[in-house]
Design brief:
It contains 25 helices and 39 strands. It has 900 residues and is an alpha+beta fold. A 5-stranded mixed β-sheet has the order 7-6-10-8-9. It has a 5-stranded mixed β-sheet with strand order 12-11-17-14-15, with helices on both faces. A hairpin with a 5-residue loop joins strand 11 and strand 12 (328-331). Helix 2 (18-38) runs antiparallel to helix 3. The longest helix has 32 residues, at 699-730. The chain is elongated and about 165 Å long.
Length: 900
């Protein structure tokens, strides 16, 4: 069976009875002893003292892990009777209120002898400062330090003691190696050598003596002495440590090692008043703050057998908080209940900044009321419980300005001695993307009121050396981009200028300013946006540029200084200028002239007001840029530049020719072109063409028909109530009124939704057009002409028994075509019958048996027999709706019939 340390620890953790612990201790000793004996043959110099040391070390490790002394089976043999109960209370306390408070203050953390839950003093300081403060230095000793490493060369000054192992090697007449320990009498006993006193001697001294003895007794031989295993010393650590009691350490261990082996110093213990008591009664006081600062001093002294280390309760404390390198709680020096402000700052690592700091001391009056006073860094001191708070007094960068907006690297820029704006903008690499150079702004402070103000400037003039201004420290230079400027010409700004609010702070501020002021500050912007017909926007979905979100008042500044550019330019809009600029610069900002621009007709409108004038005078000037240089014309803020478009004979849009022509397609036209011209360009008509049935549609006529239908639908909607009221007075029942309302609503709905065709009755026969030029239609862009094939049928629709197409027969009357369609239906009104001719014209016809009209029904015509509306005369207006809808339906049917 194999036993290892982990198995025995688990036994001690789970089953803590005295018998089990004793048994585990015995098995550990046996296992370690067996392993040592088994290795005697393979490790030269192995002695029983080595085995004893390993057993003692393993036993001590088991004791440290289980917090149980295995020597006599008792639970704890610590000299501090209160240690176990106090440890259990401090490590296992779980007060819900304290945990909640600690969580709020950020004082949580892993549990340890000196750390984990905040101590009572840490909670008190945290409540006073509002921030989590830790006691300085305790985390260094949280975990047990490993046994000091004894490998490598041991100093010749090492003082030997009982239990040290010496390895003595002879070379020469006799060659052998002997391992020997310093016995309890303090002697070293070697073969063929009298006992040598070793206790208290240094390693160098023992070497010298052995060399002399060897030289006398073994001629020609030399001896070499080194230390094998060092001795163990037993020390006792008492007071405010994690696990008070006896500890076995090697002779290289120091006070710090012993405290670490005891679990570290509790936060209730002192780091500056530790006492080392030698077995001879000597007392050495140790300040671990010196150790933490690199001056080891007494903390690095080697321990001796029987030493006692006492860690007393924590002494007076002060705290340093705020903008320092290491905010913490510090213990005052031994024998003192106060600490100088300078020493407290040194312990905290000093203020984060070398200058510009404010120091405040939080102190108590005799009644315990806290007060804040300025701290004196030269002679001031902190008494017990006081706090030194360090704040950065001014978070500004002197001698710098900030550059923002459309720049490559926004941020601070150093000012030269002159504080020149030109020096800041001299590096053109600073400008990135698409900067707008005719206008910039500097955010500075008014020297009298100290209020922030925007000062406009011309970046282009500054870069070229024509303008400069002096900057002050912390001023902000704003460079606008093309997107920032183009936003000024959007519907969202038009809404704000109409006092309809805005979707971002800048638009809201602009809208409020417009409501409060009636001045003409934004006259040019108003005329371009509102009077120019910029459509309204859904302001809730508008994203303002970031520069306006950062500085909402900038938008009103720009709109006060805009010049409007309209007409034939690539980007018409509003362009702010800080000072008069040449027309060339303004046109370049607008993207340049359009291809059709008439540079001989450039109009500049200026709204000029003299200082003493009571009204604004409008001055207009028409410039011929073929005679005047662009650089010689100066444009001022508020001016409007209008670039006319050259008069052209080319008509916008195309005319489409379809059907029976030789070359159907879309043709561009010039002003004044007629239908005959396009038909000739299309190659003329084919032999199967039927020009009398030509279908000619025009977009403008389609729009007029649509407007007329909507207007009629609106009038009908208004008349429904009065019509129904009159009908209800004549009707004995309400059923007819309800039916009429349903019919009327359906008619109005159909009328509003119907899509007109925009057909125009034209003459399309080239021979007729040549003989009668007045019938030749002048074309517009978007017109469409369809020349159908000659049909051989007549359509009969409406109230007949068999509506449909009848074969065309020359000389037949309309009544004969109706008879061929089965005759009249019951609800027919033959007295209002009419015929729709192939060219779209309509004529009434007489279908009576005594009619003497000559037959004039051309191929492709449509005979319509309407319904008798007498049953619905209570809604006479219905006939108007029916007539309109019928007209649309018949037009669609006629077009379909002719085109097919």
């Amino acid at each position: 069976m194999i036993f290892d340390i982990d198995s025995l620890r688990e036994i001690l953790r789970v089953r803590s009875g005295p018998t089990i612990r004793r048994f585990a201790s015995m098995m550990l000793v046996a296992a370690v002893g067996g392993a040592a004996i088994a290795s005697v043959g393979g490790a030269r110099g192995q002695t029983l003292l080595d085995l004893q040391g390993q057993i003692e070390s393993a036993t001590q490790a088991l004791q440290n892990n289980s917090n149980t002394q295995l020597q006599d089976g008792s639970a704890n043999t610590s000299l501090d009777a209160q240690a176990e109960s106090r440890s259990a209370t401090e490590d296992g306390a779980d007060d819900a209120d304290l945990q909640a408070a600690d969580s709020d203050l950020g004082l949580g953390g892993p549990s340890s002898a000196s750390g984990g839950k905040p101590s009572s003093i840490e909670r008190d300081y945290a409540m006073r400062t509002g921030r989590a403060l830790r006691q300085y230095g305790y985390r260094v000793f949280d975990r047990a330090a490993p046994t000091p490493i004894t490998s490598g060369e041991i100093s010749p000054d090492y003082v030997l003691g009982i239990g040290d192992e010496l390895i003595v090697t002879y070379r020469g007449q006799i060659s052998r190696t002997v391992s020997v320990r310093v016995n309890r009498d303090g002697d070293v006993v070697l073969p063929e050598t009298p006992p040598l006193k070793a206790v208290g001697a240094t390693l160098a001294d023992l070497r010298d003596r052995l060399q002399r003895i060897t030289a006398e007794s073994m001629v020609g031989s030399r001896v070499y002495v080194t230390v094998g295993n060092v001795r163990l010393v037993s020390v006792t650590v008492l007071g405010e440590v994690g696990h008070p009691g006896a500890r076995s350490l090697n002779s290289f261990a120091t006070v710090v090692d012993a405290i670490g082996a005891a679990g570290g110093v509790r936060r209730s213990g002192s780091l500056r008043r530790i006492e080392l008591i030698r077995i001879n009664g000597e007392r050495i006081f140790i300040d671990l703050y010196d150790y933490l600062r690199g001056d080891y001093g007494a903390a690095s002294a080697s321990l001796r057998d029987g030493d006692r280390i006492v860690v007393p309760l924590l002494g007076p404390t002060v705290a340093v908080d705020g903008d320092v390198a290491r905010p913490a709680i510090f213990e005052t020096a031994p024998g003192s209940s106060s600490m100088t402000v300078k020493e407290a700052l040194d312990l905290s690592g000093g203020a984060l900044r070398p200058a510009g700091n404010r120091f405040i001391r939080i102190t108590f009056d005799p009644d315990g009321v806290q007060s804040a006073v300025s701290a004196d860094l030269k002679s001031g001191s902190l008494r017990r419980g006081e706090i030194l708070q360090v704040f950065i007094d001014r978070n500004v960068i002197g001698g710098t300005v900030f550059v923002e907006g459309s720049v490559s690297t926004p941020g601070p820029r150093a000012l030269d001695k002159s504080g020149s704006l030109r020096a800041v903008l001299a590096n053109l690499d600073l400008l990135s993307g698409a900067p707008y150079l005719p206008f910039g702004a500097v955010l500075t402070r008014d020297p009298l009121t100290l209020l922030p103000i925007f000062t406009p400037f011309d970046p282009l003039a500054v870069i070229n050396g024509r303008q400069d201004m002096k900057l002050n420290s912390t001023d902000r230079v704003i460079i606008f981009g093309a997107k920032d400027i183009s936003f000024l010409s959007t519907p969202a700004v038009a809404d704000a200028l109409s006092s309809r609010g805005g979707a971002c702070p800048a638009l809201s501020a602009l809208s409020g300013l417009v409501r409060r002021s009636r001045a003409d500050s934004f006259l040019s912007a108003r005329q371009f946006l509102i009077q120019g017909g910029i459509p309204a926007s859904a302001t809730s979905n508008v994203d303002c540029p970031a520069i306006y979100d950062l500085y909402p008042n900038l938008m009103s500044l720009l709109l006060e200084n805009v010049s409007a550019v309209t007409g034939d330019v690539r980007n018409p809009g509003l362009y702010p200028i800080a000072q008069p600029v040449s027309l060339r610069i303004l046109l370049n900002a607008a993207g340049g002239l359009g291809r059709s621009a008439d540079i001989s007709q450039v109009e500049v409108s200026r709204y000029d007001a003299k200082v003493s004038a009571t009204s604004t005078e409008i001055q207009r000037q028409v410039l011929d840029l073929t005679q005047v240089s662009l650089d010689s014309v100066m444009i001022r803020p508020g001016d409007t530049v209008r670039v006319a478009t050259r008069v052209t004979t080319r008509e916008q849009g195309l005319v489409t020719v379809r059907g029976e022509v030789l070359r159907p397609g879309a043709y561009d036209i010039s002003r004044g072109d007629r239908l005959s011209d396009v038909l000739a360009r299309a190659g003329g008509l084919t032999s199967a063409a039927y020009p009398f049935g030509a279908v000619f549609t025009r977009d403008r006529v389609r729009d007029l028909e649509r407007q007329a239908n909507r207007r009629t639908a609106a009038e009908l909607q208004k008349g429904i109530v009065s019509l129904l009221a009159r009908q209800s007075q004549r009707s004995t029942t309400g059923a007819g009124v309800a039916d009429a309302m349903g019919v009327m609503r359906d008619l109005v709905k159909d009328l509003a939704a119907v899509e007109p065709y925009g057909r125009v009755v034209v003459e399309a026969d080239p021979a007729v057009l040549a003989a009668r030029p007045e019938l030749d239609t002048v074309l517009e862009g978007g017109d469409e002409v369809t020349i159908p094939k000659r049909p051989n049928y007549i359509l009969v629709v409406g109230e007949v028994l068999n509506p449909g197409a009848q074969q065309f027969r020359s000389g037949l009357h309309a009544a004969e075509y109706v008879d061929a369609a089965g005759g009249y239906a019951v609800d027919s009104d033959e007295g209002r019958a009419f015929v729709v001719l192939p060219n779209g014209a309509a004529e009434p016809i007489n279908l009576g048996s005594w009619s003497t009209e000559e037959a004039n029904i051309p191929p492709g015509a449509m005979i319509v027999v309407p319904r008798d509306l007498a049953p619905f005369d209570f809604l006479a207006i219905t006939s108007d709706v029916t007539r309109i809808l019928s007209s649309v339906a018949l037009t669609a049917a006629a077009l379909n019939a002719v085109q097919n």
